[in-house]
Design brief:
Length: 354
Amino acid sequence: MILPYRKVSIAPMMDWTNRHFRYFIRLITKYVNLYTEMISEHAIYHKRNSQKDLKHLLDYDSCEHPLIFQIGGSHIPIIKECVKIVEEWNYDGININCGCPSEKVFENQFGAILMAEPRFIANIVKEIKKVSKLPVSIKHRLGIKSNHLDKTHYEDLKEFIKICYNEGGCEHFIIHARHAYLGKYSPKKNRVVPPLIYEWVYQIKEEFPELMIEINGGIDNIQDILNHLKYVDAVMIGRAAYEDPYFLIDIDEVFLNQKNSLSRKEIFLKFVSYVLDQIDQGIYPHSVVIHTFGLFRGIKNSNKWKQYLTKELTNLKKYPIEKLPKELVYDILTKSLEILPEPIYEANRHTIVL
């Protein structure tokens, strides 16, 4: 049985979807599912006996719910121990990474390379279900190709899903609608060079109507989200949510009938208090504020705004964190908005055809 699930989510992205970015996104939309960046099984397992280290790795703000934890790994006993820890931290689900094309990742036998072993993935899902009640999903590509194997045919994709469902009990598949070429392209090129084939994802939904099929890849506006939802159950937004997050401002109105009227300026000012709170946690402002740098994308002087913040916030590292003056941080953040033209403070609305 598929648990209730929201129709839009933001993809797990390494170094990007950490708790600072997720808190920031919640100022824009309350609706979307959020995911952690991929965290490896060993990162959790090696810190399992230190609550301080686990807090640093797993902590989040309650506003981030629903929040799904993405794990990378292939050692079943370790994964099971990690999942039990994750459940104790009250995450809302577990997602298995079978889509990352990084050479470092597939050399360690997780990520996209696992698509070559659907029965092994099915067993991971089955074993997770033995120790946790959290819903389990798999994020993967259409297929994979390397010097040693070719799994780039539609029937390979269908077989992967069929085995993971029938033998593992996985009911939720998040499909990045591109192939992954392991060893040929860098992770960056693997995100853009392989062509998008949305039709394969649509066809999977037709052939497995009982499953939750979520589509991912190249989706960067609300109209496209609604168009994809005619054929699949849910849509996952990737880099567009980080690089241009304000396009999500209408999500709550479309799916919750709750309009978010905050302008870009108001969102940033709300985030300032969070930045100041993080100083008390020993975190310098630049590593927090950098996750808002897409907020004014396409707006005049946005590059100057980012340059100003980068320079001024980096300079703050001359202070020991415990002596960093919050008043100075507040002045820098609020003054930065003077660089931007006033008209951008009005929320830009999108024409949406329902």
